[in-house]
Amino acid sequence: MGVEIRVENLTKRFGRQTIWEDVSLTLPAGEISVLLGPSGTGKSVFLKTLIGLLKPEAGSITIDGRDITKVKEKDLYEIRKLFGVLFQDGALFGSQNLFDNIAFPLREHTKKTEKEIKDIVLDKMEITGLTGSERKLPGEISGGMRKRAGLARALVLDPQILLFDEPDSGLDPVRTAYLNQLIVDLNAQIEATFLIVTHDVNTARTVPDNIGLLYRRHLAMFGPREMLLSSNEPVVRQFLNAQREGPIGMAEEKDAGELESERGIELGALPPIPAQLPTSSGITRASERKPGSWLKANGVVPPPGSFPGLDLTFEDGKGTAAQRPEKQSDATSASRETVGAGVRVVPSGAKKAAAVKAPAQKAPAKRATSRRSTEG
Ligand SMILES: Nc1ncnc2c1ncn2[C@@H]1O[C@H](COP(=O)(O)OP(=O)(O)O)[C@@H](O)[C@H]1O
Ligand SMILES: [Mg+2]
From ligand 2's centre to the CA of 46, what distance in Å? Predict the structure, then answer.
């Protein structure tokens, strides 16, 4: 069920330009992680480095026990088969219909018969709500459908790791909501490791199990969703709450004068932490943590109004046990530790990543993806 990706002290430069340095984080197997960051901070470069399309200047990326920055080209080719990637624009061939676009990796990388290919393609098109659009050309469909076609293509080789580069860019809020639901349902179904690059704050707040933030050439923080949504670290707080006050300015980082002029301005209270987006069928994802579990384990009381509708209580941060209303029996649940979420605070570049432990719930997840036919 998905593979872990362990990134240690990774540094990427182009010539003398450092894109980011000393990035350490672990994407836990089967979990959904989001990587946030202002435009131009190197999020796409990070994804390309993970799949070995770009070589880092320092550090390691361990997948399935192998450091992909050190392996031979032949082995890298094999490791890449673990990945499915949804590129920012869908990266479809304009002259080929959706069926042929989605079938492309199968025809290129496998010896499957056309009959087998057809079964797989139609299945992935159903999962992504594209049934009936096999003969359409990319130019004839909406941006949302193009993204879903790119997603269907990313799924045909049954990836263990799915990377999404700004899946929500260019989509209206309704289409974004559909796509986010599809991502959560898909994770419940295929249990692969997901990494979503976005700068949509709402997506980051509600979809993932973990959030990371790239800022000023460093990974400002990476850890469980509840950790970042309750963090008072200025950059994290400003970005995740879309506030003007804070160290991030219009261009990038604010100068001393701007920061000085903000001194004394009361930062608004942290907004309530929303419930995590559930699967559309109500099934618990295998990697899903109980709401409030990180907060409780770490003695953090969330802002008032957090987890609306879930009736959680936090007493001095050690609240009573919380249950999602439709959650399955705990008898089948086994407690699991998620380790390796690195935390680092900008700009102390030299500080080593600290491990954060977050308790997690494990429950069986069955085929849960909703069958959508909604256009979008
Ligand atoms: N192949 C490349 N050669 C040189 N510079 C690059 C290359 N790819 C990206 N960059 C630079 O890396 C920086 C980060 O780019 P990118 O990863 O696309 O940012 P983001 O996805 O966060 O918006 C940009 O300054 C960009 O110009
Ligand atoms: Mg990008």
Answer: 9
Which three-class secondary structure state does DSSP give residue 14?
Answer: strand
d(CA 270, CA 217): 26
132-187 pLDDT, tens digit per residue, is 999 999 999 988 899 999 999 999 999 999 999 999 888 888 889 999 999 999 99
What confidence tens digit (pLDDT) does each residue in 106-118 have?
999 899 999 999 9
Q: Which atom of ligand 1 is nearest to the CA of 15?
A: 4
Task: Say if residues 121 and 71 touch (Cβ distance below 8 Å).
Answer: no
Does residue 45's CB lie within 6 angstroms of at least one atom of ligand 1? Answer: yes
Domain segments of the chain: what residues?
1-82+159-376
CATH of domain 1-82+159-376: 3.40.50.300
pTM score, whole prediction: 0.82
Taking the centre of ligand 2 as the mean of its atom positions, its distance from the CA of residue 216, in whole angstroms, is 15
Answer whether 19 contacts ligand 1 (Cβ < 6 A).
yes
**Alpha helices (H) in 54-198, listed in sequence order:** 73-80, 98-109, 114-127, 143-155, 173-190
